[in-house]
């Protein structure tokens, strides 16, 4: 057992400061364990959101040494031992208290996306037929645990605060899961361009980097959606004519 | 006391699979619905379910149908199940699964494009519809995304403290929101409890902080009956190392895909102890077991896929007799299938992606090359609120319950995969009947004194802050968990349970001195303090019920009474609040089964 120093943001509604703590750490411990231990030892009212502690529910999102992470999946052994572990709340959402932010905006955004709209069933018993290869592609997007770390790291939301104009990577993944769902027949391309603001994404891939589920957000979800938007909203005849003119 | 008031026809407390499904159904029936989540929407424990949802779709083996599923469920539950629930569950689960597909769920597929099904413990045929090993996430997300478009008010991060009653029926609920700590009064004609389990009463558990037996305790406090509380399921395979992840679930799907259990001597010890009533269905050799996991219809299942209660006790025995792994578990080996299967590593990563991820990230172990260390973990409670099999109404009029917090379907032991189908089948039924009840009954009046008393009680821990003999809520919870783990765990004796009851009384006295610092806004210390009362109620119910059942059956194993008795199959243990305020324990006879269901069981013996 060794004692390690921590610096944890304490305060409410954005006002507050990093406070120093120290606690004993053991092999295999994750950051969330340390937070809980500090809570039980010396900071009974330290606010932190968590549930499954196994990287499956996406509740304990925060920033560890400045990087958006799940507290339950960040092992202390993987962090530099020569300086304190700094734990702060996510920055893209309104601060509530200590490590907790108000993520309700995400739920409102999701409600605005056209829901799943299936084609009529394939079989008389009301069921559909799909091949594994068809569902594989979408299953990648459906692995999303809604931790909102991709939203937190996205500069459009984090730095430019364009929450009104841009739904963020999480909901582009959600839209991609619906658009590429083998049974879905709704068309979301007009919404993607206007209401959902897909054009704001300039594919810096920060979201992909922080995704704890390893979803290739930019390459597999956002870029194909951008292509769909371009295909749908460009008149193909005029496009061809432009191409021909450029060549001559 | 200051509070916000809200009114709904149907109030659903709990937003996992059962609560969401109930809310969807009640809304579809035209009721105004409020859905209360203790956490954020979509984070409830359903999200953790890995293996799959059991339904006799017969997509993989056409010999399967509802009768076989019914017989399997009754055998697994050792015949103290509510047979009506077991029947409805087996009959309706396929339609509930297909409905999820119509709402956007994407299950893994068979070669002819239908929903794929996998083998699981206690199920005769491949029956679990699944999505790799993240079926629960698929299910809760599908219900959540469908539900929010059906018109319901979602109250996130809101904890219910008490149910409100009027003249012997439910009238609403009273609670507080976590973010601001403000009290909230819900008036409702009908209330559906879907609060999940009690895992946090134990030290080693797969459950998150939320599972403090809230629904069980709310119903009990309001005068409803609980039953089968002695039947706690200890899942045989939880992680045991590193210490901080002890208890996190390792899906039974690992064994369904060919994973085997070995002790420190390398022996597949599950072959050494096969219960008589499962012998005819169990593989005679390792070879036959392997063929079963690979879909050979003529092979019988390996003993690793016996029921969870049995496998958990066998693991405990190996550990106690000195044949355990270095960190006090046994080995679960899926890597060995390399010997049988080309491309095994890729196969494992595809079939068990989150297990691969979980061990890689949390334990630094690659399960495609190295055996896992596993041991039993508190996972589920078969017992719960006593309900009518058809309507899911409790013994308190207007109060319904569905999912883990309700009792009956699983009897003495739940089969893996039957919980997700339980949530769907009985969530729907509870929502439907709650809406019908709400349509037929006017709102009941709520006396202000009930509300005042609840609010005062909730704030008491703040008044004691700074007092000399203050107790920490965290410490009390830890002590309770340690005691329940040691005294009312996988193997119990009368002496242990009496000690547990004494220990509980002592903890309760100390809990009267619990103090919390700070203020009401998002204060986890306060929540821990308020959770204690529910934990005490359910722990007492488990201990008292376990004392009353003087035999061993399913999840309840008495070291001092290791045999099953004939009498034990004839009753359920029920607890309710007695006239003196103490817990009353009674035996209720198991209802006689109709002839045609008995014939189904006999035909599938």
Question: How do the helices and strands line up, and which of them pair or pack?
Answer:
The complex is a heterodimer of chains A (248) and B (605).
Chain A: E1 2-12, E2 15-25, H1 31-41, E3 61-64, E4 67-70, E5 85-88, E6 95-97, E7 100-101, H2 104-111, H3 132-142, H4 149-153, H5 155-158, H6 169-179, H7 189-193, H8 206-210, H9 217-233, H10 236-247
Parallel strand pairs in A: 1-5
Antiparallel strand pairs in A: 1-2, 3-4, 3-5, 6-7
Helix pairs in contact in A: 3-6, 6-9
Chain B: E1 3-13, H1 17-28, E2 33-36, E3 53-54, H2 66-76, H3 83-102, E4 117-118, E5 128-129, H4 135-147, E6 153-155, E7 158-166, E8 169-177, E9 183-193, H5 214-221, E10 226-227, E11 232-239, H6 253-256, E12 260-262, H7 276-279, H8 286-293, H9 308-320, E13 330-333, H10 344-351, H11 353-363, E14 372-381, E15 384-385, E16 399-401, H12 418-440, H13 448-463, H14 473-487, H15 494-511, H16 524-548, E17 571-577, E18 583-589, H17 595-603
Parallel strand pairs in B: 1-2, 1-9, 2-6, 9-16
Antiparallel strand pairs in B: 3-5, 4-5, 7-8, 8-9, 10-15, 10-17, 11-14, 12-13, 13-14, 17-18
Description:
The complex is a heterodimer of chains A (248) and B (605). By secondary structure, chain A is of the alpha+beta class. Chain A has two domains: 2-100, Beta-grasp domain (Ubiquitin-like (UB roll), Roll); 104-233, Fumarate Reductase Iron-sulfur Protein, Chain B, domain 2, CATH 1.10.1060.10. In chain A, 36% of the residues lie in helices and 16% in strands. Chain A has helices at residues 31-41, 104-111, 132-142, 149-153, 155-158, 169-179, 189-193, 206-210, 217-233, 236-247, and strands at 2-12, 15-25, 61-64, 67-70, 85-88, 95-97, 100-101. In chain A, strands 2-1-5-3-4 form a five-stranded mixed sheet. In chain A, strands 6-7 form a two-stranded antiparallel sheet. In chain A, a hairpin with a 2-residue loop joins strand 3 and strand 4 (67-70). In chain A, helix 3 (132-142) packs antiparallel against helix 6 and helix 6 packs across helix 9 (217-233). The model of chain B has no long low-confidence stretch (mean pLDDT 96). The termini of chain B are far apart. Chain B has helices spanning 17-28, 66-76, 83-102, 135-147, 214-221, 253-256, 276-279, 286-293, 308-320, 344-351, 353-363, 418-440, 448-463, 473-487, 494-511, 524-548, 595-603; strands at residues 3-13, 33-36, 53-54, 117-118, 128-129, 153-155, 158-166, 169-177, 183-193, 226-227, 232-239, 260-262, 330-333, 372-381, 384-385, 399-401, 571-577, 583-589. In chain B, the strands form four sheets. In chain B, strands 1, 2, 6, 7, 8, 9 and 16 form a seven-stranded mixed sheet that branches. Chain B has a four-stranded antiparallel sheet with strand order 15-10-17-18, with helices on one face. In chain B, strands 11-14-13-12 form a four-stranded antiparallel sheet, with helices on one face. In chain B, helix 1 (17-28) runs parallel beside helix 4 (135-147), helix 1 (17-28) packs parallel to helix 12 and helix 10 crosses helix 11 (353-363). Helix content of chain B is 36%, strand content 16%. The longest helix of chain B has 25 residues, at 524-548. Chain B is built from 17 helices and 18 strands. Chain B has a domain at 235-375: Flavocytochrome C3, Chain A, domain 1, CATH 3.90.700.10. Chain B is α+β, with helices and mostly antiparallel strands and 605 residues long. At the A-B interface, helix 1, helix 2 and helix 3 of A face helix 3, helix 4, helix 11, helix 14 and helix 16 of B.
